[in-house]
Amino acid sequence: AAAAAAADTAAAVPPAARPPMHRYPASYWTQFVVLCRRSFMAQMRNPTDVASRTLLSTWIGIIIGLVFVANPPGPYGVFHRLAALFFSMELFQLLPFCYMSLYIADRKFYAADVAGGLYHPAAYYLGHTAAASPLIALNALIGGLTVYGLANLRYTPAAVLTFAGLSVLGGLLALQLVV
Fold this sequence. Notes:
By secondary structure, the protein is mainly α. The longest helix has 30 residues.
């Protein structure tokens, strides 16, 4: 009887007086796609910034590689090889902090849009991360593989792919600290 009474009261409430199903005017997927496209276009509209980030990765890779270019062979070079790996991973994880200008410029739009109830903060975060990830991965690969080649590390396909994967993963993890 209580279930029937609850169903009757729900049917008696006019549709205009019912609370909305969603808090935001668009679905989560639409929010994600729009924000991802907006973030990607903001990055691509600034080719100087994209080129400077890529050149920065290249130069850092060259400098680190040249520091460790004369690695001695055998067990004497283990320390130098580990240092090359450590410094390349560390610097390429800190490199996304050089891109802060893009994120700070976008914060005022983010605050206004969220205050207006246009989208969920998670949609902004995921869209922005998805848009920035390809460039971060590319820069980590360019710089990391430059270090790898110049530091005379192992040239087996498995070793190169492992280093490349770890470089990309490190760059993407560092991006999470920036966004």
